[in-house]
Amino acid sequence: MVTLLSRKNHLSSSPLSSFTLVLFLTSCLLGTSYTSHNNNRNLVAAETPLSHDQLYSQYGFVKNWAAPMPGTPIAASGVNTTQPGVDTGAGYILHNWSTNYKTITVGANDISFVADPYPSTSPSPAPASSSNSTVNAVSQVMQINYPKGSYAPKAGPVTGGTSFYAIPFGDDTPFEKMMISYDVAFPTGFDWVLGGKLPGIYGGHPHECSGVYAYIPVADNSNFCKNPNVQCNDQYGKSIGRGLLYFPPGTWTRIDMVMQLNEPAGYNNGILDVYINGLKFTSMNTIPYRTTGMVGFQGLMFSTFFGGSTPSYGTPVDTSVFFRNVQLSVGEPATLYEGNGGTPAAGGKIVGSRATLESLVFSVFAILLGVFFATEQKKKNMIKSVLIFNNHGNPRLTKFYQPIDIATQQALIKEIFQLISKRPDTVCNFLEGSQMLGGRDTRVIYRHYATLYFVFVVDESESELGILDLIQVFVESLDRCFENVCELDLIFHFKEVHDILAEVITGGMVLETDIGDIVAAVQEAGRLAKKPTGLLAQKSPF
């Protein structure tokens, strides 16, 4: 929600009630902070969807594990036990997925394997089968059940969902980078309630420092928590980008999440890249994952449930979610060392007491408030896209903040231009969206400057005057950075234009509206990009 505060182009976004990514980190990260926010990029129209194999090659992974799936249906266990029988869904997981300690932590009676309920739908692009990425050519998929009234793994009288750890590359070898990939499908009519969790990656030891529920106690002056894209909770950890992602029900959606450790430990240079159906949804490269060199990425944390830890999160009906093509890719083993730098630990493995290691739990969950990834009822209060056309309809910038396939994006761009180009400059600058754009739930708000149209597509709940003022902020920021911006600047400085927009809007939410701060951040990023690194940064002795 954008709120108009004054006539001086100064806006303020209301408290963000929804994000997309959740990182649960432990107290070994005390004292670290995340202070940069200009690296977030969301589903750029010009990008081509990438397959799993392409991502595997692009990020330099060296090993891949594809979770086996049975060739015939397997029913769920009749009882909730940590040691289910081999003829049950949980038993299949236990004996084929390299689970930690051969245990299903919770929800053994909620795991089954069934025929694919949506065989005619497929993420784009579909995961390719190769030596790096082998997916089972069978129709069975994993079904996780959530009985009526269930929430949080061990809370309440009814247990729903499941939680277990898979370590296909061993328990003793942490890795410098890791990618988790899977397809997820929510049935038509799925009731999202208040939120829930999806699988992610963990590091450290899952049964020390509370494992899944590890957290960082947060100081009131934490720069990380002051970031508009971050929500902090002293009990449950850090939330980044809740509610910015929409998962359509009744179809498969592919998730690929890439994480790379910050190195040396304590530096703010950890990487997080998330792809939805092969398109980059978000990218961050200043994350302080760890302050000790004794921790690396370990394996798959398959945790999914409703909640929240109160009955208000409980599902009102028996329901299910489906998973398939679960894969884990790793880079080289991480070099471990005491403290935040120095000599590698003996043998490159964890030394000392396991109890001294803090667990890191990194999870791509879909919203704590907004649910397993944004829902139909939670996709409100956001900017859906930012577009710039010239007077002939040629797009000079296209930015979509929801996962939309390329063909639909192109159709939307054409329709929006047809809508606004026919309107004289003397009429109102906002109009209701067409059926294709979302009908009455959507507004198209624009300004016409000489040869360029600046267009924001937003939810009906946004303030039209506030968005008009926000467009002015964006234009004036461009003008200051390019000294009287023109169409050629948008063509020949494509990256810089996107960087400026990313300072103003991230994930469809207003991030910054002070023009001076926007320009300063972009200029500082430009200086850092030009600064030599490595050998080039060392002075010559001659």
| Main sheet makeup | 8 strands, antiparallel
Which value, in Å, is the CA radius of gyration? Answer: 24 Å
What percentage of residues falls in helices of 4 or more residues? Answer: 10-25%
Oligomeric grouping of the chains? single chain
Indicate the overall shape. Answer: globular
Number of domains: 2
What's the end-to-end separation, in Å? 58 Å
* Unreliable parts: 1-46, 126-136, 206-238, 342-380, 533-537
DSSP helical segment count? 8
Q: Which structural category do the helix and sheet elements fall into?
A: alpha+beta
Strand composition percent: 25-35%
By CATH reckoning, the class of the largest domain would read Mainly Beta
Characterise the protein shown here.
The protein is of the alpha+beta class and 542 residues long. It has two domains: 23-376, Jelly Rolls (Sandwich), CATH 2.60.120; 380-527, Beta-Lactamase (2-Layer Sandwich). Helix content is 16%, strand content 26%. It is built from eight helices and 24 strands. The strands form five sheets. Strands 4, 5, 6, 8, 12, 13, 14 and 16 form an eight-stranded antiparallel sheet that branches. It has a seven-stranded antiparallel sheet with strand order 7-15-9-17-3-11-10. It has a five-stranded antiparallel sheet with strand order 19-18-22-21-20, with helices on both faces. Helix 5 (464-482) crosses helix 7 (494-504) and helix 7 (494-504) packs across helix 8 (515-530). Residues 1-46, 126-136, 206-238, 342-380 and 533-537 have low confidence and may be disordered. InterPro entries: AP_complex_ssu, AP_mu_sigma_su, APS3, Clathrin_sm-chain_CS, Longin-like_dom_sf, Polysacc_lyase_14. Residues 1-35 form the signal peptide.
